[in-house]
């Protein structure tokens, strides 16, 4: 069980990032339209989020539209421009992914999006997001990513919720062989943290969201509970 397991929290505003940071988040994933599964954050929102950067930084979602992860040329051109724009703002990483029509990770699309951001900042960390769960074989997909310089993969183990995909997540960790971090997330429950760590997850990912006045925002209390649980499991 890792002694340095990171807690990543999704933030859709500067206020959400502030709450997550104050409550103990190690890393923030910045996005907008979380109710649609998340899209790339706009400049003003991202600037606000970056004012509350935790120890492991702010990583921006790169996704030009909701829906599936099968992208055409027009989509990819838009996301290449978005990748450069996000990199110029000073984010620490990009969160991206694509699959082709057959359900195989679209390695060319992933490489193109990553390269666009890395042109601006070669130090960016690249995370493959839950598009890997839309692939027909998430374990095989990890091996396909090994030579692309991907830093981590966010996954729910091919299931609707990460807690149900822990067996697959453990096999993904084995397939990565220490070359790619595997981060468990997606419909995660606090009770799933211990099993996820035992499966070898290097990080856990939560939205930690609550409804307030008809909007989705980060619950500082929820993040604190997750932080305390993670600390108790790794001390």
From TrEMBL:
Domain of life, per lineage: Bacteria
Matches recorded under InterPro entries: CutC-like (IPR005627), CutC-like_dom_sf (IPR036822)
CDD domains: Aldolase_Class_I (cd00945)
Family in the record: Belongs to the CutC family.
Protein name as it appears in the record: Copper homeostasis protein cutC homolog
The organism's taxonomic lineage, starting at the top: Bacteria, Bacillati, Actinomycetota, Actinomycetes, Micrococcales
């Amino acid at each position: 069980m890792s002694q340095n397991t990171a807690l990543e929290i999704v933030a859709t505003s500067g206020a959400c990032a502030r709450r997550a940071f104050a409550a103990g988040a190690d890393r923030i994933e910045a996005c907008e339209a979380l109710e649609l599964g998340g899209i790339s954050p706009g400049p003003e929102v991202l600037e606000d989020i970056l004012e509350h950067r935790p120890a492991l930084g702010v990583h921006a979602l790169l996704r030009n539209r909701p829906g599936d992860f099968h992208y055409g040329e027009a989509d990819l051109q838009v996301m290449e421009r978005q990748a450069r724009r996000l990199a110029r703002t000073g984010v620490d990483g990009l969160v991206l992914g694509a699959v082709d029509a057959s359900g195989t990770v679209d390695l060319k699309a992933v490489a193109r999006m990553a390269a666009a951001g890395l042109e601006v900042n070669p130090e960016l960390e690249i995370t493959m997001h839950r598009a890997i769960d839309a692939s027909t074989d998430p374990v095989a997909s990890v091996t396909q990513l090994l030579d692309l310089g991907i830093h981590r993969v966010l996954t729910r183990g091919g299931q609707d919720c990460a807690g149900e995909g822990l067996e697959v997540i453990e096999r993904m960790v084995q397939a990565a062989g220490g070359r790619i971090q595997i981060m468990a997330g997606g419909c995660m429950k606090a009770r799933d943290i211990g099993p996820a760590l035992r499966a070898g997850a290097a990080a856990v990912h939560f939205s930690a969201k609550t409804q307030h006045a008809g909007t989705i925002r980060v619950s500082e209390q929820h993040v604190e509970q997750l932080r305390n649980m993670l600390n108790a499991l790794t001390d």
